[in-house]
Amino acid sequence: MKRKPNLNSNEEGKIESEEYGPLPGLDYQFFEYMQEGVTVYAVLRDESGKVVDLVITYANIAAYRQKKSLKKGLIGKSIKDLYGYEAVSTDLKKANEAVSTGRGVKYDVHFIPLDKYFSVSAFSPKEDVYVTLTIDITKQRKAEEEMQIERQKLLDIIEFLPDATFVIDENKRVIAWNKAIEEMTGTLKEDILGKGEYAYSMPFYGEKRPILVDLIFLSEKEMEDKYAYVKREGKTLFAEVFVSNLFGGKGAYVSVKASPLYDREGNLVGSIETVRDITELRKELCPK
Prior knowledge:
Helices cover about 25% and strands about 30% of the residues. The chain is an alpha+beta fold. A hairpin with a 5-residue loop joins β1 and β2.
């Protein structure tokens, strides 16, 4: 393995080395107050030319803050010595890709020592020099994880609702299809989850077409003729209709309810529809 370069700090805090010095003609003060963390590394390779470590030769203020480190704690140190191989394995893999191809790379990484997430853009401007620009995306990723947890809780609740229920996202793809609706339509969730283009109407009507849940996205005029009874209460729609395809072709009168779903910022992210069999109730109310 190649030896580590002999790095020395000059009076301005820059790193000078005969072999791995700063990029010629580059004023590092340009990077100092950028919002992105900027780090310049000397590349260490093994005998086969593979990048095995990176030695920090420059880091701007944002980079220090991101890694919660003092300047003297970073400059001249290798990232494996600082953080351990497990914490930097992804970074070394991407460095190999950038150095070997000459093309920049972009990736997100979980920095285990601080439990932080970074979006990284990296490139190799010259032989054995590697530069990264990092943005702290921890808050965004944590929010996404919390939303995913809440979404899974919602899906778990939907799965065991007594009424037949399905959910579509903002792109009209099916993201939930519970046990009750499997029994009502004969369509299993594994056959419909992830499908769009009105696939959710097929088990009901045998064709792809807008149904009540789509009134949330479309005008009421486009759907009124499809239902014998349609009512709106706030943002929730109610309808009653006879669907001949249900329960293996026996058909059923159903009461249908569709409501929009919003995220924490109030953005429409999908809609939910519940379907209740009211055939027996209709027979009682409307005997022949």
